[in-house]
Amino acid sequence: MRQFVALLIREWQEWRMVMAVVAAIYVLGLVVSTVALHRGSEAFLAGHIHAGIHHDHDLSDSDDFDDDPFPEEEDDAEWISPKEMGFFSLGEILRFSGRADLILFGWTHMLRGGVSFINLSLLVLALFYLADAVFKERADGSTYFYRSLPVGDGAVLAAKLVAGTVGFLGISFILGVGSVLFAQLTFPGGLAEYLAAEGYAASQVAIMDLLGDWMIFHVLQLLWLLPFAAYLLFVSTVTRSRPLLIALVVPLLVGILWRYLMGNNAFLSEITTNLMVLGDVLGNEWLGHRGPGIDPGASIELFGSFTGYIFSLRTVVSLLVAGSFFAGVFFAYRKNLAVS
Predict the structure, then answer these.
(1) Cα–Cα dist 285/282, whole Å
(2) DSSP string spanning 211-234?
(3) Residue 336 region by backbone torsions, left for phi larger than 0, else alpha for psi between -120 and 50, else beta
(4) Of 303, 253, 294, nearest to 119 (Cα)?
(5) Mutual orientation of helices 168-185 and 16-60 as an angle, nearest 10°?
(6) What angle do CA 230, 236, 239 make, to 5 degrees?
(7) Read out DSSP for 77-105?
(8) Distances (CA, A) of 316 to 1, 223, 233, 305
(9) Domain regions of the chain by residue span
């Protein structure tokens, strides 16, 4: 076990610069999103106060029947053109929503989108890691060194597979939950007071439910995406150049040939079905998309339960396919193919 942990640490050390860049981008994203939310909150509150003062002024002058009831200049002054509003003007979006439940509804969707984006980004990064995991060592000759150590080939390859799957998914889970906690801690005070006046609060987001649901979703991703990970590792082991390109292009060419000969997209549909179903599962458990429906003080769950999807035939088939690919990785690695 100690040897296996040492292998995992080695994999981490080889990617420490990449992880440092990921950490820097993550922190920058948190800062930018926080600043944008605070500026949007300030713009909303300023507009809300201005609208209240303007409304009071109109009521005080309501008995003056000599004035034009439709002053054109004042209407023009209040009008906000699309150019002035800006395509991504969060302040104006908050101002037009107005209602506290709509604001909280939109904020929870931002949280869902944030954790999902973090997850997707790390999955893409895992593609590069898995495709390069064995190929890079064969290219620089370090395979001979590691095979001279008192560690079995299976342990070396398993460490790479675990690092490329459990490792990246674990980072995705930590960063995703961390972003939600950070968003709650840095929620604008003025906007929080506005929500509190109607009985709402950013703390209504159920963090404990998010921890359980999001962890189960990552376990589901691990099980259903394991065949893709083992396939990338297999290509990394057998190819002599550009493993990621070959891993993507070969199935695409086979799919095109299949369509030409058979007249359908059955091959591409079959090999990507786990990806498509995962997207459907996330969409089905993406709560709140049917409308605000948020009651004051009520707990808000960001996602539903993913547990029921794990115990399925798809999981069993995915594990069998992943096992077959990993067996191919093991036998190809033992041949220790040279790299041109």
Answers:
(1) 5
(2) HHHHHHHHHHHHHHHHHHHHHHHH
(3) left
(4) 303
(5) 30
(6) 130
(7) HH---HHHH-TT-HHHHHHHH-SHHHHHH
(8) 27, 9, 20, 20
(9) 2-335
Provide the residue type at 309 as one letter: Y
Question: Smallest Cα–Cα separation from 176: which of 125, 101, 119?
Answer: 119
- The residues of the chain scoring below 50 in pLDDT are 50-60, 62-97, 338-340
Question: What gap in Å lies between CA 158 and CA 133, rounded to an integer?
Answer: 11
Q: Please classify residue 193 by burial: count the beta carbons closer than 10 Å to its beta carbon, then call 0-12 exposed, 13-18 middle and 19+ buried.
A: exposed
The C-alpha atoms of residue 268 and residue 259 are separated, in whole angstroms, by 9
The torsion region of residue 263 among left (phi > 0), alpha (psi -120 to 50) and beta comes to: left
Are the beta carbons of 112 and 286 closer than 8 angstroms?
yes
Q: Record the tokens describing residue 2, joined without a space.
A: 């100690």
Tell me the pLDDT tens digit for each residue of 208-235: 999 999 999 999 999 999 999 999 999 9
Tell me the per-residue pLDDT of 112-163, one tens digit each, with 9 for 90 and over.
Answer: 999 999 999 999 999 999 998 888 877 666 666 666 667 777 888 888 999 9
The answer to whether 309 and 217 are in contact (CB under 8 A) is no
For residue 269, give the amino acid letter: S
Q: Is 66 helix (H, G, I), strand (E, B) or coil?
A: coil
How many of the other CB atoms lie within 10 Å of CB of 243?
A: 24
Residue type, 180: V
**Cα–Cα distance between 95 and 44 in angstroms, integer?**
5
Which position has the token pair 């939950």?
Answer: 177
Cβ neighbours around 77 below 10 Å, total: 9
Residue 175's contacts (CB-CB under 8 Å, 6 or more residues apart) are 26, 118, 122
Number of other CB atoms surrounding residue 31 within 10 Å: 12
Q: Which residues contact 151 (CB under 8 A, 6 or more apart)?
A: 3, 7
Is residue 229 a contact partner of residue 275, using CB atoms and an 8 Å limit?
Answer: no
Cα separation of 167 and 285, whole Å? 24
Report the length, in residues, of the chain: 340
